[in-house]
Amino acid sequence: MAKRTITVIKGDGIGPSIIDSALEILKAAGCDFDYDFVDAGLTALENTGELLPQTTLDAIVKNRITLKGPLTTPVGEGFTSINVTLRKKFNLYANIRPVKSFVGTKARFDNIDIITVRENTQGMYSGLGQTTSEDGSEAQAMSMITKEGAEKIVTFAYELACRENRKKVTTVHKANILKSTSGLFLKVAREVAKKYPQIESNEMIVDATCMKLVMTPEEFDVIVTTNLFGDILSDLCAGLVGGLGMAPGANIGEDAAIFEAVHGSAPDIAGKNLANPTSVILASIQMLEHLNMADTAERIRNAVADVIKSGDRTTRDLGGNHGTTDFTQAVIDRL
Protein backbone atom coordinates (compact mmCIF):
# COMPACT_ATOMS: atom_id res chain seq x y z
CA MET A 1 0.00 0.00 0.00
CA ALA A 2 1.33 3.44 -0.93
CA LYS A 3 2.35 5.66 1.95
CA ARG A 4 0.07 8.57 2.77
CA THR A 5 1.55 11.94 1.80
CA ILE A 6 0.67 14.93 3.95
CA THR A 7 1.15 18.51 2.77
CA VAL A 8 3.01 20.48 5.45
CA ILE A 9 3.06 24.27 5.67
CA LYS A 10 5.45 25.16 8.50
CA GLY A 11 4.28 28.77 8.57
CA ASP A 12 5.80 31.89 10.06
CA GLY A 13 7.34 32.86 13.41
CA ILE A 14 7.14 29.92 15.81
CA GLY A 15 5.46 27.80 13.10
CA PRO A 16 8.53 25.81 11.98
CA SER A 17 9.54 24.83 15.53
CA ILE A 18 6.06 23.70 16.63
CA ILE A 19 5.41 21.85 13.36
CA ASP A 20 8.76 20.04 13.76
CA SER A 21 7.62 19.07 17.26
CA ALA A 22 4.35 17.59 15.94
CA LEU A 23 6.15 15.68 13.16
CA GLU A 24 8.66 14.19 15.63
CA ILE A 25 5.80 13.04 17.85
CA LEU A 26 3.91 11.51 14.90
CA LYS A 27 7.06 9.60 13.96
CA ALA A 28 7.57 8.39 17.54
CA ALA A 29 3.95 7.21 17.59
CA GLY A 30 4.63 5.02 14.57
CA CYS A 31 3.04 7.15 11.83
CA ASP A 32 4.78 6.36 8.57
CA PHE A 33 3.80 9.37 6.44
CA ASP A 34 5.60 11.05 3.58
CA TYR A 35 5.62 14.86 3.77
CA ASP A 36 5.35 17.41 1.01
CA PHE A 37 6.79 20.67 2.43
CA VAL A 38 5.49 23.90 0.88
CA ASP A 39 5.42 27.58 1.89
CA ALA A 40 2.73 30.16 2.56
CA GLY A 41 2.58 33.48 4.39
CA LEU A 42 5.54 35.79 4.95
CA THR A 43 8.05 33.00 4.28
CA ALA A 44 6.49 32.42 0.85
CA LEU A 45 6.28 36.17 0.18
CA GLU A 46 10.02 36.54 0.80
CA ASN A 47 10.89 33.50 -1.32
CA THR A 48 8.43 33.82 -4.21
CA GLY A 49 6.76 37.24 -4.00
CA GLU A 50 3.42 35.56 -3.29
CA LEU A 51 1.60 34.78 -0.02
CA LEU A 52 0.05 31.62 -1.50
CA PRO A 53 2.20 30.26 -4.34
CA GLN A 54 0.61 27.98 -6.97
CA THR A 55 2.92 25.11 -5.92
CA THR A 56 1.36 25.26 -2.44
CA LEU A 57 -2.19 25.22 -3.82
CA ASP A 58 -1.28 22.30 -6.11
CA ALA A 59 0.11 20.30 -3.16
CA ILE A 60 -3.06 20.88 -1.11
CA VAL A 61 -5.17 19.60 -4.04
CA LYS A 62 -2.94 16.59 -4.71
CA ASN A 63 -2.50 15.32 -1.15
CA ARG A 64 -5.92 16.39 0.24
CA ILE A 65 -4.61 16.49 3.84
CA THR A 66 -2.57 19.45 5.12
CA LEU A 67 -0.95 20.20 8.48
CA LYS A 68 -0.33 23.92 8.89
CA GLY A 69 1.50 26.19 11.31
CA PRO A 70 0.41 29.79 11.97
CA LEU A 71 0.66 32.15 9.00
CA THR A 72 1.12 35.91 9.03
CA THR A 73 -0.92 38.02 6.63
CA PRO A 74 0.78 41.42 6.31
CA VAL A 75 -1.36 44.19 7.81
CA GLY A 76 -2.63 46.74 5.34
CA GLU A 77 -4.68 47.07 2.23
CA GLY A 78 -4.09 44.72 -0.65
CA PHE A 79 -3.48 41.59 1.41
CA THR A 80 -6.40 39.22 1.91
CA SER A 81 -6.31 36.86 4.91
CA ILE A 82 -4.54 33.67 3.82
CA ASN A 83 -6.78 31.52 6.01
CA VAL A 84 -9.96 33.02 4.52
CA THR A 85 -8.52 32.54 1.02
CA LEU A 86 -7.75 28.86 1.69
CA ARG A 87 -11.22 28.24 3.10
CA LYS A 88 -12.92 29.78 0.08
CA LYS A 89 -10.61 28.27 -2.53
CA PHE A 90 -11.05 24.71 -1.27
CA ASN A 91 -14.61 25.18 0.06
CA LEU A 92 -13.53 24.16 3.57
CA TYR A 93 -17.04 24.72 4.83
CA ALA A 94 -16.66 23.22 8.32
CA ASN A 95 -14.35 24.56 11.01
CA ILE A 96 -14.01 22.21 13.98
CA ARG A 97 -12.55 23.59 17.22
CA PRO A 98 -12.55 21.10 20.12
CA VAL A 99 -11.49 22.21 23.60
CA LYS A 100 -10.86 19.82 26.47
CA SER A 101 -9.57 20.42 29.97
CA PHE A 102 -6.06 19.18 30.74
CA VAL A 103 -5.13 18.71 34.39
CA GLY A 104 -2.12 20.87 35.21
CA THR A 105 -2.95 23.97 33.15
CA LYS A 106 -3.79 27.28 34.80
CA ALA A 107 -7.34 27.15 33.40
CA ARG A 108 -10.25 28.22 35.61
CA PHE A 109 -12.25 25.07 34.84
CA ASP A 110 -11.34 21.40 34.91
CA ASN A 111 -14.40 19.78 33.30
CA ILE A 112 -14.58 21.35 29.82
CA ASP A 113 -15.22 19.18 26.76
CA ILE A 114 -16.82 21.30 24.02
CA ILE A 115 -16.66 21.12 20.23
CA THR A 116 -17.51 24.28 18.29
CA VAL A 117 -18.61 23.58 14.71
CA ARG A 118 -18.42 26.82 12.75
CA GLU A 119 -19.67 27.50 9.24
CA ASN A 120 -16.49 28.56 7.49
CA THR A 121 -17.30 30.26 4.18
CA GLN A 122 -20.41 32.47 4.52
CA GLY A 123 -21.87 35.15 6.76
CA MET A 124 -20.38 38.44 7.88
CA TYR A 125 -16.87 37.01 8.33
CA SER A 126 -16.50 36.18 4.63
CA GLY A 127 -15.92 39.88 3.86
CA LEU A 128 -18.50 40.06 1.08
CA GLY A 129 -19.36 43.45 -0.42
CA GLN A 130 -17.00 45.56 1.66
CA THR A 131 -17.06 49.19 0.55
CA THR A 132 -16.02 52.52 2.04
CA SER A 133 -17.37 55.81 0.72
CA GLU A 134 -14.91 58.11 -1.04
CA ASP A 135 -14.88 60.58 1.83
CA GLY A 136 -14.36 57.79 4.36
CA SER A 137 -17.48 58.67 6.32
CA GLU A 138 -19.37 55.45 5.68
CA ALA A 139 -18.51 51.76 5.38
CA GLN A 140 -20.61 48.76 4.42
CA ALA A 141 -20.30 44.99 4.32
CA MET A 142 -22.72 42.27 3.37
CA SER A 143 -23.70 39.06 5.12
CA MET A 144 -25.05 36.16 3.09
CA ILE A 145 -26.31 32.81 4.37
CA THR A 146 -27.60 30.14 2.02
CA LYS A 147 -30.01 27.36 2.90
CA GLU A 148 -27.59 24.83 1.41
CA GLY A 149 -24.66 26.20 3.44
CA ALA A 150 -26.64 26.17 6.69
CA GLU A 151 -27.95 22.66 6.05
CA LYS A 152 -24.47 21.36 5.31
CA ILE A 153 -22.88 22.69 8.51
CA VAL A 154 -25.72 21.78 10.85
CA THR A 155 -25.87 18.24 9.40
CA PHE A 156 -22.09 18.03 9.85
CA ALA A 157 -22.49 18.99 13.53
CA TYR A 158 -25.16 16.35 14.18
CA GLU A 159 -23.22 13.65 12.34
CA LEU A 160 -20.16 14.56 14.42
CA ALA A 161 -22.26 14.35 17.59
CA CYS A 162 -23.44 10.85 16.61
CA ARG A 163 -19.93 9.69 15.75
CA GLU A 164 -18.42 11.03 18.98
CA ASN A 165 -21.29 9.82 21.19
CA ARG A 166 -22.21 13.38 22.13
CA LYS A 167 -25.54 14.04 23.80
CA LYS A 168 -26.44 17.60 22.83
CA VAL A 169 -26.17 20.10 19.99
CA THR A 170 -26.72 23.80 20.69
CA THR A 171 -27.48 26.05 17.71
CA VAL A 172 -26.20 29.57 18.40
CA HIS A 173 -27.81 32.48 16.54
CA LYS A 174 -29.03 36.10 16.69
CA ALA A 175 -32.35 35.52 14.92
CA ASN A 176 -34.16 37.93 17.28
CA ILE A 177 -32.34 40.85 15.57
CA LEU A 178 -30.78 39.48 12.36
CA LYS A 179 -34.10 38.04 11.25
CA SER A 180 -33.06 37.30 7.65
CA THR A 181 -29.60 35.73 7.87
CA SER A 182 -29.56 34.33 11.40
CA GLY A 183 -33.27 33.61 11.02
CA LEU A 184 -32.64 31.37 8.01
CA PHE A 185 -29.78 29.59 9.81
CA LEU A 186 -32.01 28.87 12.82
CA LYS A 187 -34.93 27.72 10.64
CA VAL A 188 -32.70 25.25 8.79
CA ALA A 189 -31.13 24.05 12.06
CA ARG A 190 -34.58 23.24 13.45
CA GLU A 191 -35.40 21.20 10.35
CA VAL A 192 -32.14 19.26 10.52
CA ALA A 193 -32.56 18.61 14.28
CA LYS A 194 -35.77 16.67 13.61
CA LYS A 195 -33.74 14.03 11.77
CA TYR A 196 -31.70 13.33 14.92
CA PRO A 197 -34.23 12.60 17.68
CA GLN A 198 -31.56 10.71 19.67
CA ILE A 199 -29.59 13.95 20.17
CA GLU A 200 -30.86 16.64 22.51
CA SER A 201 -31.23 19.87 20.52
CA ASN A 202 -31.40 23.35 21.90
CA GLU A 203 -30.91 26.88 20.63
CA MET A 204 -29.40 29.92 22.24
CA ILE A 205 -28.87 33.57 21.35
CA VAL A 206 -25.17 34.37 20.97
CA ASP A 207 -24.91 36.92 23.80
CA ALA A 208 -26.56 34.54 26.26
CA THR A 209 -24.20 31.81 25.03
CA CYS A 210 -21.17 33.96 25.89
CA MET A 211 -22.45 34.54 29.40
CA LYS A 212 -23.31 30.88 30.00
CA LEU A 213 -19.96 29.69 28.62
CA VAL A 214 -18.23 31.80 31.24
CA MET A 215 -20.57 30.87 34.11
CA THR A 216 -21.73 27.28 33.43
CA PRO A 217 -19.65 25.88 30.56
CA GLU A 218 -20.47 22.31 31.56
CA GLU A 219 -23.91 22.87 29.99
CA PHE A 220 -22.36 22.72 26.49
CA ASP A 221 -21.41 19.73 24.39
CA VAL A 222 -21.45 20.52 20.63
CA ILE A 223 -22.08 24.11 19.48
CA VAL A 224 -23.00 24.85 15.85
CA THR A 225 -23.10 28.41 14.56
CA THR A 226 -22.38 30.86 11.77
CA ASN A 227 -18.95 32.08 10.70
CA LEU A 228 -18.43 35.27 12.75
CA PHE A 229 -20.09 33.96 15.93
CA GLY A 230 -18.06 30.76 15.62
CA ASP A 231 -14.84 32.71 15.31
CA ILE A 232 -15.55 34.55 18.57
CA LEU A 233 -17.06 31.67 20.55
CA SER A 234 -14.28 29.22 19.69
CA ASP A 235 -11.68 31.62 21.10
CA LEU A 236 -13.81 32.12 24.21
CA CYS A 237 -13.92 28.32 24.61
CA ALA A 238 -10.12 28.17 24.23
CA GLY A 239 -9.89 30.61 27.13
CA LEU A 240 -11.80 28.13 29.30
CA VAL A 241 -9.06 25.50 28.91
CA GLY A 242 -5.95 27.69 29.18
CA GLY A 243 -5.81 29.74 25.98
CA LEU A 244 -5.16 29.38 22.27
CA GLY A 245 -2.03 27.34 22.94
CA MET A 246 -4.36 24.50 23.99
CA ALA A 247 -6.79 24.72 21.06
CA PRO A 248 -6.47 23.05 17.66
CA GLY A 249 -8.59 23.63 14.57
CA ALA A 250 -9.65 21.62 11.53
CA ASN A 251 -11.02 23.03 8.27
CA ILE A 252 -12.94 20.32 6.41
CA GLY A 253 -14.27 20.26 2.86
CA GLU A 254 -15.34 17.57 0.41
CA ASP A 255 -11.94 17.39 -1.31
CA ALA A 256 -9.44 18.80 1.18
CA ALA A 257 -8.85 19.16 4.92
CA ILE A 258 -6.42 21.53 6.66
CA PHE A 259 -5.45 21.00 10.30
CA GLU A 260 -3.83 23.89 12.13
CA ALA A 261 -2.66 25.62 15.25
CA VAL A 262 -5.24 28.37 15.77
CA HIS A 263 -2.94 30.87 17.52
CA GLY A 264 -0.74 33.46 15.84
CA SER A 265 2.86 33.23 14.69
CA ALA A 266 4.26 34.96 17.84
CA PRO A 267 7.27 36.56 16.10
CA ASP A 268 8.53 37.92 19.44
CA ILE A 269 9.47 34.40 20.61
CA ALA A 270 10.33 32.88 17.21
CA GLY A 271 13.60 30.97 17.15
CA LYS A 272 13.97 31.11 20.92
CA ASN A 273 12.77 27.56 21.70
CA LEU A 274 10.04 28.90 24.00
CA ALA A 275 6.76 28.07 22.23
CA ASN A 276 4.21 25.59 23.54
CA PRO A 277 3.56 23.17 20.63
CA THR A 278 0.38 21.68 22.14
CA SER A 279 -2.06 23.39 19.75
CA VAL A 280 -0.46 21.93 16.63
CA ILE A 281 0.10 18.53 18.31
CA LEU A 282 -3.64 18.46 19.05
CA ALA A 283 -4.29 19.49 15.42
CA SER A 284 -2.22 16.51 14.28
CA ILE A 285 -4.40 14.35 16.56
CA GLN A 286 -7.49 15.73 14.75
CA MET A 287 -5.75 14.82 11.49
CA LEU A 288 -5.18 11.24 12.66
CA GLU A 289 -8.83 10.92 13.67
CA HIS A 290 -9.84 12.19 10.22
CA LEU A 291 -7.62 9.46 8.73
CA ASN A 292 -9.34 6.80 10.92
CA MET A 293 -6.25 6.38 13.11
CA ALA A 294 -8.11 6.93 16.38
CA ASP A 295 -5.91 4.57 18.45
CA THR A 296 -2.71 6.44 17.57
CA ALA A 297 -4.48 9.76 18.18
CA GLU A 298 -5.53 8.59 21.64
CA ARG A 299 -2.00 7.45 22.52
CA ILE A 300 -0.57 10.86 21.65
CA ARG A 301 -3.35 12.70 23.52
CA ASN A 302 -2.71 10.60 26.64
CA ALA A 303 1.03 11.30 26.43
CA VAL A 304 0.44 15.07 26.14
CA ALA A 305 -2.06 14.98 29.02
CA ASP A 306 0.43 13.13 31.23
CA VAL A 307 3.25 15.61 30.49
CA ILE A 308 1.01 18.58 31.38
CA LYS A 309 -0.43 16.88 34.47
CA SER A 310 3.01 15.90 35.83
CA GLY A 311 4.58 19.27 34.97
CA ASP A 312 7.50 17.35 33.47
CA ARG A 313 9.43 19.69 31.13
CA THR A 314 6.46 21.98 30.47
CA THR A 315 6.69 25.39 28.78
CA ARG A 316 6.34 28.73 30.56
CA ASP A 317 2.65 29.23 29.74
CA LEU A 318 1.99 25.86 31.43
CA GLY A 319 3.85 26.88 34.57
CA GLY A 320 7.17 25.26 33.69
CA ASN A 321 10.49 26.71 32.56
CA HIS A 322 11.32 24.47 29.61
CA GLY A 323 11.21 25.01 25.87
CA THR A 324 9.61 23.44 22.80
CA THR A 325 12.24 20.73 22.33
CA ASP A 326 12.18 19.57 25.98
CA PHE A 327 8.37 19.43 25.99
CA THR A 328 8.44 17.45 22.74
CA GLN A 329 10.94 14.97 24.19
CA ALA A 330 8.79 14.55 27.32
CA VAL A 331 5.84 13.53 25.12
CA ILE A 332 8.05 11.17 23.06
CA ASP A 333 9.41 9.55 26.24
CA ARG A 334 5.84 8.62 27.20
CA LEU A 335 5.12 7.16 23.77
TrEMBL record:
Keywords per UniProt: Oxidoreductase
Domain Isopropylmalate dehydrogenase-like as annotated: residue spans: 5-331
GO molecular function annotation: isocitrate dehydrogenase (NAD+) activity; magnesium ion binding; NAD binding
Cross-referenced SUPFAM superfamilies: Isocitrate/Isopropylmalate dehydrogenase-like
GO biological process, one term: tricarboxylic acid cycle
Keyword presence, Oxidoreductase: yes
InterPro entries assigned to the protein according to its UniProt record, in alphabetical order: IsoCit/isopropylmalate_DH_CS, IsoPropMal-DH-like_dom
Top-level taxon in the UniProt lineage: Bacteria
SMART domains named among the record's database cross-references: Iso_dh (SM01329)
Chain coiled-coil ranges: none
PANTHER family in UniProt: DECARBOXYLATING DEHYDROGENASES-ISOCITRATE, ISOPROPYLMALATE, TARTRATE, ISOCITRATE DEHYDROGENASE [NAD] SUBUNIT ALPHA, MITOCHONDRIAL
Protein family (similarity comment): Belongs to the isocitrate and isopropylmalate dehydrogenases family.
Protein name, UniProt field: Isocitrate dehydrogenase (NAD+)
Organism the protein comes from: Pseudoalteromonas denitrificans DSM 6059
